[in-house]
Design a protein that fits this description.
The complex is a heterodimer. By secondary structure, chain A is of the alpha/beta class. In chain A, strands 1, 4, 5, 7, 8, 10, 12, 14, 16, 18 and 20 form an 11-stranded mixed β-sheet that branches. Chain A is globular and about 70 Å long. By secondary structure, chain B is of the alpha/beta class. Chain B has one domain: Rossmann fold (3-Layer(aba) Sandwich), CATH 3.40.50. Chains A and B meet through helix 7 and helix 8 of A and helix 2, strand 7 and helix 3 of B. The complex binds adenosine-5'-triphosphate (ATP) and magnesium ion (MG). The site of adenosine-5'-triphosphate (ATP) has 14 residues of chain B, from helix 1.
């Protein structure tokens, strides 16, 4: 048996179920059984064709149960907090909520914002109807593992017609401290009818560890949810993240993914357009360098008529990095008048970098508009010459064109402070300086007084 | 200023020879017009002067201010005062025109040992030049050439030229695609830049432009060679008789 499986079984059998309500214990057990039955995904499965998990199963990532504060300071966390005005910041270290590192104030009337551990105790009746409803652990083995180890994360409940004016920023920091550990953060965000919520989820850490996170988002009719996911894990880390969302009629879900760090990365986004005229923007940027392997999976499930989806993923790969984009669009028989667009464009900055991109359309309705396209290319020689012919150095021109490529995605992020912070991230990762904050003057796009770029 | 001797150029990728022995001498203060049929090699010559690396010089030399131009990278040619307005300006989504212009100008100023312009000084310079060529300021904030109309792209090239202040400007069909008013504005812009220490090479198909910018010399490039040279009268003759009569004789 794989060392990882042994470790998971050992950790699972010693979890303290006694403190949980029965329904939760049953859910966790059932998820673990499902994982044991199915085992690890094999490259024969379409969704795992380009990502081999065998090497990672050699590492017995340990689940750290005690929530003891591991000595991570506020200063360290500060690096990973985007400078967004008025944002609430919720910090988790090794998967557990750290109130002393977080800022929590002024929640609107009726809004519930709690650590998952807390919510399972005090608002179990609100959590239960949604938890594991859309994140299907029978389909996804690592979602099953996450579900089996549900312990902490964030629960937000936005009641009817409640507009949350400030963004909520979650920071997950892992400090592996010598031993290989795993965290299974579990988030659930429920936004009722006409509610509005903006979320930022950041992942970072130090050492060799595995983040296996699952977020479920439920948007009621006419609700609006903006979701930004930023992954800046240690370059030795393994990062698996899954977002599952379900949208009711006339709701808006805008998701922005930014993937920079990690050794082995799998970003999965699964959207169900469950109500008429719902719309979804799926915006993604990933970058890989060195030996990084970055796999992006998206599923856009059009389950209702008149819904629209717009999916735009871009990747930049350097060195020997490998990238994967597998974009699935399903249009169910009842989903007439669907409008679905998907595009994946990739920029290779070296000869050895590899990209596998695959649109995957399953259309069962007849009156629909679907378009998709994928490209893999290098820096455009004509553009490069144009910049150089105006006096710009070759390497500066090259960098500029690389930023410009990524910028298109960054610009779609609604929060301005977030955009700036992402530009810094991009700069740092492109220049291999991942530990320091970049002075804004060094940035090619820093916004001057007249917002030139 | 510019001395081209027996220049032979081929395309690197496939070895096809495009320029087959060009001789051209341009002195400070002069304006040279280059005309010639489609595909004769005019843009090739212009791009080789600016340092495009898809071409290979197999014979001959280009001296610029007495130095071997072929040894300089495109960026260093620009910094030494060469400016090429492209026949087909390139779109660069994601980079604002203002950022591009300011970065270019400062790269050139650094090379000349001048102080870099800050955002405010740059903006007032850009505004002044834009006013002169009647270009709306909003073009500063748009991505370089993206979605610009054909004429707007050409005007943007002239704006770059006005801001970068070159010694040798090569305009490759900057007049094509311009309406009459724009043509006049561009011509005025070019004339304003005429100076005793500055030279220009205008590639054009139309005698019309030469009514506004009167050239000192007109050359006909055909089949990769300069087959005829003369004064502005040559352009008029070409307009009336076409290129056929130039063939076969210098
Ligand atoms: N990659 C290539 N392979 C083959 N032929 C090429 C290639 N690039 C350019 N050419 C040829 O080189 C010749 C010269 O082209 P150039 O653009 O210099 O012409 P031009 O005189 O500027 O024409 P125009 O008046 O139409 O702008 C043309 O016949 C063109 O087809
Ligand atoms: Mg041409």
């Amino acid at each position: 048996m794989e060392p990882l499986t042994l470790q998971l079984e050992q950790d699972f059998s010693s979890s303290g179920f006694s403190r949980h309500p029965t329904w939760l214990t049953e859910l966790m057990k059932s998820a673990f059984v499902s994982f044991e039955d199915k085992g690890y995904p094999s490259p024969r499965e379409e969704a795992w064709r380009y990502t081999n998990v065998v090497p990672m199963t050699e590492t017995p990532f340990r689940f750290v149960k005690d929530s003891k504060f591991s000595g991570v300071s506020k200063d360290k966390i500060k690096h990973f907090v985007a400078d967004i005005e008025g944002a609430l910041c919720l910090v988790f270290v090794n998967g557990f909520f750290q109130p002393q590192l977080s800022t929590l104030q002024g929640l609107p009337q009726g809004m519930i914002l709690q650590s998952m551990a807390e919510a399972l105790k005090t608002h179990s009746h609100l959590v239960r109807p949604y938890l594991a409803r859309f994140a299907d652990y029978r389909e996804h083995p690592f979602v099953a593992v996450n579900t089996a180890f549900i312990h902490d994360g964030l629960f937000i409940f936005v009641p009817k017609k409640t507009v949350v004016k400030f963004p909520v920023h979650l920071v997950y920091f892992s400090a592996s401290e010598g031993q290989e550990t795993v965290t299974h953060p579990r988030n659930l965000f429920v936004v009722e009818e006409q509610g509005q919520l903006q979320l930022i989820e950041s992942y970072a850490g130090e050492g060799t560890y595995w983040t296996n996170t699952v977020t479920e988002i439920v948007a009621g009719s006419r609700a609006t949810v903006d979701h930004v996911r930023v992954q800046k894990e240690d370059l030795k880390a393994t990062h698996f993240s899954s977002v599952f969302s379900h949208q009711a009629a006339d709701s808006h879900f805008h998701s922005h993914l930014f993937s920079f760090g990690g050794h082995l990365v799998r970003n999965n986004t699964h959207v169900i357009l469950g109500g008429e005229k719902s719309d979804c923007l799926l915006n993604g940027f990933f970058m890989g360098q060195g030996q990084q392997h970055v796999d992006n999976q998206t599923t856009m499930d059009h389950a209702s008529p008149y819904a629209s989806s717009d999916e735009f993923y871009k990747g930049i790969l350097k060195d020997q990095a490998q990238g994967v984009f597998n974009g699935r669009i399903i249009v169910r028989p009842q989903a007439q008048k669907t409008n679905a667009r998907q595009s994946n464009r990739n920029l290779l900055l070296s000869e050895e970098a590899r990209m596998n991109t695959k649109p995957n359309l399953e259309i069962y309705a007849n009156d629909v508009r679907c378009s998709h396209g994928a490209t893999v290319g290098h820096i455009d020689e004509e553009q490069l010459f144009y910049l150089r012919s105006r006096g710009l150095d070759r390497h500066i021109s090259y960098d500029l064109l690389t930023y410009a490529f990524a910028r298109e995605i960054i610009q779609k992020v609604p929060l301005e402070g977030m955009g700036r912070s992402l530009e810094c991230d991009l700069f740092q990762y492109l220049h291999g300086e991942t530990s320091q904050k970049v002075p804004s003057a060094a940035l090619p796009f820093s916004r001057g007084p007249q917002r030139t770029v | 200023m510019l001395n081209i001797n027996n220049l032979h150029v081929r395309i690197k990728d496939n070895g096809i020879e495009i320029l087959k022995g060009i001789d051209l001498r341009v002195n400070p203060g002069e304006v040279h017009a280059i005309m010639g049929p489609n595909g004769s090699g005019k843009s090739t010559l212009a791009q080789v002067l600016a340092g495009r690396e898809t071409y290979e010089v197999t014979q001959g030399e280009i001296l610029y201010e007495g130095k071997n131009l072929l040894e300089l990278s495109p960026e260093n040619r620009a910094r030494e005062g060469i400016f090429l307005a492209l026949q087909y300006p390139v779109e660069i989504p994601g980079i604002a025109n203002s950022y591009f212009l300011k970065a270019s100008l400062n790269a050139i100023r650094r090379h000349r040992g001048q102080e870099e312009l800050d955002a405010m000084d740059f903006l007032s310079l850009a505004r002044e030049k834009m006013k002169f060529i009647k270009m709306d300021e909003s073009f500063l904030n748009r991505p370089v050439n993206e979605g610009f109309s054909g004429g707007e792209k050409k005007r943007n090239e002239i704006l770059q030229m006005a801001i970068l202040d070159p010694k040798l400007a090569i305009l490759d069909e900057t007049d094509s695609g311009l309406d009459i008013d724009a043509l006049k504005i561009v011509a005025e812009g070019v004339n304003a830049l005429r100076r005793p220490d500055r030279a220009m090479i205008l590639v054009t198909h139309y005698q019309r432009l030469l009514n506004y910018i009167v050239p000192d010399y007109v050359h006909v490039l055909s089949g990769g060679r300069i087959v005829k040279s003369g004064d502005k009268g040559l352009a008029l003759q070409l307009e009336e008789q076409g290129y056929a009569w130039t063939e076969g004789g210098v």
